[in-house]
Design brief:
Elements (H helix, E strand, L loop, with lengths): L1 H15 L10 E10 L4 E11 L4 E13 L2 E17 L3 E16 L3 E4 L1
Antiparallel strand pairs: 1-2, 2-3, 3-4, 4-5, 5-6
Length: 114
């Protein structure tokens, strides 16, 4: 798991250096901290967005909630975004639809999908 986290962190750093505008074929990436209110614990999130056309984007996100009481959570997000209008570089209105898959790991051996 440590190796996967390191690889994802390096990928985010490398991809963050790319230009972040809405031309076709561009990749935008970012990382951040999250707080899971259900279990009162911190986590790390990575997200990448690929622009197919000026209107359509696809996004992938991975969130890892740190272990607490022998339980850790992982969330994989797959999203499609349609941009209705964009006012300059500041504001855009879009519709989003997607799928989120959540995994909980209890101890070191069992894994459950919700």
């Amino acid at each position: 798991m440590k190796r996967l986290t390191l690889i994802l962190a390096m990928a985010v750093i490398v991809l963050s250096a790319k230009a972040q505008n809405n031309e076709s074929g561009n990749i935008r990436a970012g990382a951040g901290l999250v707080y899971a209110t259900d279990i009162n614990n911190l986590g790390v999130a990575f997200k990448g967005v690929y622009t197919f056309t000026p209107e359509w984007e696809g996004a992938f996100g991975f969130t890892h909630i740190l272990k607490k009481d022998y339980v850790s959570y992982n969330v994989i997000d797959l999203d499609a975004q349609y941009i209705f209008s964009q006012s300059g570089d500041q504001i855009s209105f879009f519709a989003i639809g997607g799928l989120a898959i959540t995994y909980a790991r209890i101890g070191a051996t069992a894994q459950y999908a919700f």
